[in-house]
Hints:
With about 600 residues, the protein is an alpha+beta fold. It has helices at about 15-20, 35-45, 80-95, 120-125, 140-150, 165-170, 195-210, 270-275, 300-305, 345-360, 420-435, 460-470, 475-485, 490-500, 515-520, 530-535, 545-560, 565-580, and strands at about 25-30, 50, 70, 100-110, 160-165, 180-190, 230, 235-240, 245-250, 255-265, 290-295, 310, 320-325, 325-330, 335, 370-380, 395-400, 410-415. It has three domains: about 20-60 and about 195-285 and about 395-435, FAD/NAD(P)-binding domain (3-Layer(bba) Sandwich); about 105-190 and about 285-385, D-Amino Acid Oxidase, subunit A, domain 2 (D-Amino Acid Oxidase, Chain A, domain 2); about 500-594, Orthogonal Bundle (Helicase, Ruva Protein, domain 3). The chain is built from 18 helices and 18 strands. The longest helix has 19 residues, at about 565-580. Flavin-adenine dinucleotide binds near residues 30, 31, 52, 65 and 378. Flavin-adenine dinucleotide (FAD) binds near residues 52, 62 and 418.
Amino acid sequence: MSRKKQEAPRERANVAALQARPHADVLIIGGGINGISTFRDLALQGVDVVVVDRGDYLSGASSASSHMIHGGIRYLENGEFRLVRESVRERNALLRNAPHYVKPLETTIPIYSTFSGVVAAPFRLLTHKQGKPKERGALLIKTGLTIYDLFSRGGGMLPRHVFHGRKRSLAKLPGLNPKLKYTATYYDASVHESERLGLDVLADGIAAGSASGPAIGSGSASGSDASRARSANYVEAVGVTADGVTLRDRETGEEFSFTARVIVNASGPWTDLTNEVMGSATDLMGGTKGSHIVLENQELFDACHNREMFFENDDGRIVLIHPLKGRVMVGTSDLDADPREPAICTEEEVDYFFGLVSHVFPAIPVDRVQIVYRFSGIRPLPRHDDTQPGFVSRDYAIVSGNAPDLPGTPVLSLVGGKWTTFRALGEQLSDRVLALIGVKRTISTEKLAIGGGVRYPTTAERRAAWVDTHRGEQTSARAAQLLERYGTRAVEVLDSIAADPDQPLAHDPSFSTGEIRHIVENESVVHLLDLVLRRTNHAFTGDLTIEMLDELAELAGDVLGWSGERKAEEVRGTAEMLTTFHGMRLDGHVALSA
Ligand SMILES: Cc1cc2nc3c(=O)[nH]c(=O)nc-3n(C[C@H](O)[C@H](O)[C@H](O)COP(=O)(O)OP(=O)(O)OC[C@H]3O[C@@H](n4cnc5c(N)ncnc54)[C@H](O)[C@@H]3O)c2cc1C
């Protein structure tokens, strides 16, 4: 099938679908992982639901995480047993339901003292906000891990923790600081492709609301106006009138009113600001900024032996060194932040990260030239007073309110919520909505596989068999690569590239032209930035040049009907955002900008 180049930008069918039928039972403001999870849950109950995000889906706090799907061992110290129990259960469920993106993660804690923190921790447990955290010694960590094992091993999915003395620890991980006394090793999980997992949850929600299977097509994964599950990115809630919530299409500036029986404010760190524009100011949030750097440093990568190093820095903060996607991610900070300001990883934070790497691996040099990517975000935490940022509760709450101009329309505001617990949170928020609209739950998401995790082959033999069955004209290696990248939804990519002229990208042969077109066509890509930040790993791994952006803009622009000028503008804008917010150095010249 050959493609005709489009002359004018394509109308956004998902926005047109909202305008054509500007009503739903539920309007969710905020397409981060928690808004999307609630959307999927409600769609599965047959509720007519809409989710909008003022930017790209998953571009807020959800794009800034440490990629851990974790029970939260350190929440034990805060006495948050409910949260730990729920997190562990959700972690184990995600290992089963999304095995294409969520994998077990071996985690090692280097320990430098035997007793430290033993006095401080119980005190903190009682007060939840006591002074400066003290380093946690071996005894405290051992106690914590023993309790964690009790919570964690219900299904026996992950091994028990082990403790090693100095000699054995250094034999296993010779790069570690020789001053250590012990290491403790336990298992949690990591989500390798968090944004792609979120897009899978969204697509499942849209499919649930569509009578004719996945409504993934023009306007992309977004639902037609007849669908009971619709979504639109780059649509912002900017106010409320007696006619409903005013939504603004950020691409055209056009505004329209939208009504719903219940409004869910899932705007993450911006929850208070969204309530403010809806005329009902709140003071619920107290988000803290956290940054990460991504290093291309083979020595450090090898020294981690495929484990995350999770440890306590000199200041008592828990930090991590995480080998991921062939790079090493180091983070994170925890600083009070104003959500009106963009979150950017500063040079002081980089110094802090370098300090903590040398605390754990003192002989491995790290340098700013090895930083290929930086990212930063604000955690949607509850307002906290004198509690140290690192000890603010990571639990979540749902707060009832209303918008004065829409009497009789309840507004539920979400405060908090991690990646790890998104399914349970979506279910609880959905239950609150169901009670308000008088609908009964018909299905639980607890055992429901997600997106490309459906019938995902989890052993090498099954993967080989899957590849044999589905590869069509592709080589086995290429089909296996797509399976790794998209889970079993690779079938959709294989179908697309079989129906279309396809060749490896000139600037990254691991991707093909048909594959990129498939993503743009089906995954709600609006800007080039969406493609390189959240649909592929090109920004995260630092594998981008201006020439590559040019190539991607050509492909995306042909699908979306961009003019030459628009393509050049996308390349320029993307390069600027990557430089300003992600500290990337993009080599090459701007070919399209002439
Ligand atoms: C540094 C850091 C590290 C973390 N590490 C982990 C981890 O390892 N594991 C873990 O489980 N969790 C982690 N988290 C927590 C987790 O990432 C977040 O709690 C979670 O992603 C929050 O999702 P959300 O959907 O509630 O908010 P968000 O992802 O912020 O989504 C809110 C959305 O609302 C949109 N929005 C705002 N205002 C409007 C409006 N007026 N109209 C329309 N849309 C609007 C925004 O654009 C945004 O996309 C981390 C968070 C940070 C910042």
